TrEMBL record:
It comes from Gimibacter soli. Keywords: Signal. Residues 26-250 form the Peptidase S8/S53 domain. InterPro entries: Peptidase_S8/S53_dom, Peptidase_S8/S53_dom_sf. Residues 1-25 form the signal peptide. One of its GO terms (molecular function) is serine-type endopeptidase activity. This is S8/S53 family peptidase. Coiled coil: none annotated. GO terms for biological process: proteolysis.
Amino acid sequence: MTKNKKLALLAATCLSAASPGAAHASEIKIGLLDTEISTSLDDRPNLSIILGPKAPDRPGYHRASYPIADAMISHGDLMVHGIIDGVDRTLGSGGAIMIFHANPFLEKDGSGGKLAVDWRAAHEALSWYHENGVKVVVTSFVNEKTAATEHFMKTAEELGLQIITSTGNKRADFAPWPASHHAAISVAGTNKGLRVNYDSVLEGIVDLVIDGEPAINFSRTGFGKKDATSSSYATARAGGMIAALVCTFDLEGREEIMEVLHGHTEPRQFGKFTYDFLDFDALSPGVWAAYQMAVKLGDGGGGLSPGM
């Protein structure tokens, strides 16, 4: 299919108000690079979660699960829900989704949530995604630029993997990686008042900004409004949306993906691009109350952390 035909087909499909009759690929494949998943989500039809490379335990560290406050949900679970939400909002619910989950993250014992990356496991995950025909990989973890993060992005680019990643929601003295790499598509939420164009470090590197409206709308349940939204969740939902477009319309490469996104989003007062926002109430109020508390508590002392 030529590029023009892809764009014409895409334009003919209602993406922001998807219905069960919308176009579907036979299956939507997406890679998730995140902490452990603790729920099976058996109630979601046509969902497969395939487990891949994991960081091995080592002295002083254990494989990261990153539970969210007192809720029976992990950060990995949150990301799974966001991916599903993004796919369903783009194509309509019920389509087949395959999430390839890898966990290269380690948590330092007694650190209160400080994470490290096992880079061998991370590179094994990239190869595993490529071997399984995955083209889009989402992660919400944020670090500063290092030789290891640069090599990771170089490998992903060479393998043809599109990395969807969070800019985080905390202002920092460094440009967040991998979000600021030229090959990444980066996502910002509205947590804790971050506005991308308020922060000179982030200006110019955010291509898809989940901003202007809350990534999750708590107003119906009384949990709060924009300050309670999640950039991790926004990243996962954007990843699901992009994977749905890539798999359904056979998009190739970052340039083509961004052209499609630019054509089907609206400018807002803050940030550059956004897409249709709807209330999300698929999870219980208790879960979101606990998650809001986790957001208020912060990331547990710095270092590599989710983009919450």
